[in-house]
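Friendly challenge for the regulars: who can give me the structure tokens for this chain first? No prize, just bragging rights.
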Amino acid sequence: MKKKQKRLLARIVVALIFFGAVFLTEKLTALPDYLYLILYLIPYFVAGYDVLWKSVRNVAHGQVFDECFLMTVATVGALIIGEYPESVFVMLFYQTGELFQSLAVEKSRRSISGLMELCPDTAVRLGENGEEEEILPEEVSVGDVLLLRPGDKIPVDGVVLTGESALDTAALTGESVPAEVKPGDTLISGCVNLTGVVRMKATAEFGESAVSKILELIENAGANKAKSEEFITKFARVYTPAVVLGAALLALIPSLITKDPATWCYRALIFLVVSCPCALVISVPLAFFGGIGGASSKGILIKGGNYLETLADVKTAVFDKTGTLTRGQFQVSRCLPAEGTTEDALRTLAARAEYYSTHPIALCLKSAAGGDLEPPETVTERPGFGIQAAVDGKTVLTGNAGLMELEHIGYMPAPEGATAVYVAADGVFLGCILLEDLPKENAKAALDALKAEGVQTAVMLTGDRPDAAKITAERLGVNEVHAGLLPQDKVAKVDALCKAEEKKDRLFFVGDGVNDAPVLTRADVGIAMGALGSDAAIEAADVVIMDDDLMKLSLALRIAKKTRRIVRENVIFALGVKFAVLLFSAFGLANMWLGVLADVGVAIIAILNSMRMLRK
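First reply, four minutes later:
Bragging rights claimed.
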């Protein structure tokens, strides 16, 4: 509890003690009325002097119709007509509600501000002779060598030079299991070094590192308000003046008719107390804030309440294929050697021919061959077809079927849909190696979970060949496949899908890299998967899932739907109770105590309901 909150609590307690003492005195003794007024004013001002001052200040600045103004008019009016205990109790209960509201907002902020602790205070830079220099993270330059001791936070993105360790990535990804790192592995800023001493090389400055971008997202999340939040704000601006006018008419017109102004002024004051819109103005933004905070604790960064609200209406899920639904890393699935050639010989010859290539397929072939490979004598690129290399005096060709046809080499075609590397030596076909980009382990389960959350259609967009894309789609249960697409084709396809949606239905697109940035921008909600290393994806996406866990897509939808459900519950409950008590007060069926309950009591219940979003 902050100092300001402690002071308010102390004032409430002191005022409550004074109020109790005066109330008992009134019941047990008979004093002049003006003395009771003076005595009741003590707890009244102790509890509510700041409300009165804020009301006067706001009126002076033209901000008339707010909750402070309503409380001031209602309580001062109650004092004027002689309802001293009710006036003090209204102020006490209102301030109790304000304290409770402040504590709830603070708890919600802590759920997000925990991520703010990602930012390290210092970094240790190593000089050429190994001397250590403590600097600010903002002073780190690309190429600097930094020292990480156990317990240190990684200040900037980088790569491990020496040492092995375990990293705590929970604050970034929500993953509780430490990640092991060794020389050559990538380091993401904001993680905590747990065990070993590591020397790292900075690959990005602080402002361009993951931790800096994440903090920027968190700080700006509140600026993107949901439509429900905007509606409540606009509603309160119209609702409050309308109720004040209604209260004035309720006090004036019946008083002229019945000649009983005290009764109708009292009812009008109850009307004012009940009308305070704080239950809606606080609880609705608090629910969205809690939803964003709860998602952040699970490694899902949502850039604003508007995207959280849109997620709840998603009926179509569109995915990039490579690196999103699949692992994005080729692996050898089968070797089909020709007669007279062994599988080992086929793998080794292909790997040696691809020795100098950095293409993902070449890396896969070299990994599959294993061992120490000798480089070829010469290498010639055959653009669009493959590689020609001299290996142990033989002319070796590795590439696609077109290369075999170009060189008039008879070959055995690979099975339909497979990615194949054909190998020949001195004009003789030696066989082919089948490669596969396998789906991620949880991809099928993730799509099933999305369908369970109400997603009706799963679409896959890819630049891959139609036959290979079809095989992946059938494995995962994807409803619709569009293959052979360039980045601009993906944008056009998402645009067409968005226009084909029903009015209330929404679409999200899930991608993982720079090439997906235009599509992420076009979708109703763009979701970047495992995008900590992709600046363009983080900038373009509306939601960033900080690790590569596809199951968090359905979790994000559950959080969004729960947030919307809580918002609707708060609105229906608050308005229902308020309109009922407003009606009762107009007919004299409600007193000030019930009016306070309909205002502050409803606000507390709505805030408690919103705080359910903070459950883990």
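The radius of gyration is 34 Å. The longest strand covers residues 428-436. Your move, everyone else.
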